[in-house]
Specification:
With about 170 residues, the protein is of the alpha+beta class. The protein has two helices and ten strands, in the order ββββαββββαββ. Strands 5-6-7-8 form a four-stranded antiparallel sheet, with helices on both faces.
């Protein structure tokens, strides 16, 4: 079984609560009239809750979770919740060099849902996603797996000058 390497992530001070927060958990929030602020997810969710009216949204922070994929490789997932108008998005993502990369999963729920229940549903979704090998093949060619289903995300990194980063494929 592979071990997950934990790397230090850049920390940014939240303009709301003053806490040092990982850069992936910061939201640039504001307007041209009032200026921009860098808020942690919890402060951002408080601001959104003020705008959309009273609800029973209770924010939570979750510790990273390690899961094993269908090839026996370990993956460490971090979580964040973002409140938006009629819903809450619960995201799970891996980090590469301190930034979200690799596998990403999301679950949308009602702001009044228990975040622990949503987390449980999201982890089950992650387990299902990690249990399937979608592509088969060698270095230069890939083939769709037996179940004839492919899921993916097309992304780019301007720092790679059009080259493929083999670590993330």
């Amino acid at each position: 079984m592979d071990q997950v390497e934990i790397r230090r992530t850049e920390q940014i001070r939240c303009d709301g609560c003053g806490q040092l927060t990982p850069n992936y958990d910061i939201v640039n929030y504001g307007s041209a009239e009032r200026g921009q602020r860098q808020l942690c997810s919890q402060c951002f969710n408080k601001e959104v809750a003020k705008l959309v009216g009273p609800n029973k949204f209770e924010d939570a922070r979750f510790e990273p979770v390690g899961l094993i994929d269908c090839l026996g490789q370990a993956h460490e997932f971090h979580f964040r919740a973002h409140l938006f108008g009629p819903g809450v998005a619960l995201d799970a993502f891996e980090l590469l060099d301190g930034y979200p990369a690799g596998y990403r999963f999301q679950l949308i729920g009602d702001p009044e849902d228990d975040l622990l229940v949503l987390l449980g549903r999201l982890i089950e979704k992650m387990r299902r996603g990690l249990s399937i090998k979608h592509l088969r093949g060698g270095e230069l060619e890939a083939h769709i797996g037996e179940d004839a289903v492919v899921r993916g995300r097309i992304d780019s990194d301007g720092d790679l000058d059009g080259q493929v980063d083999r670590k993330s494929t």
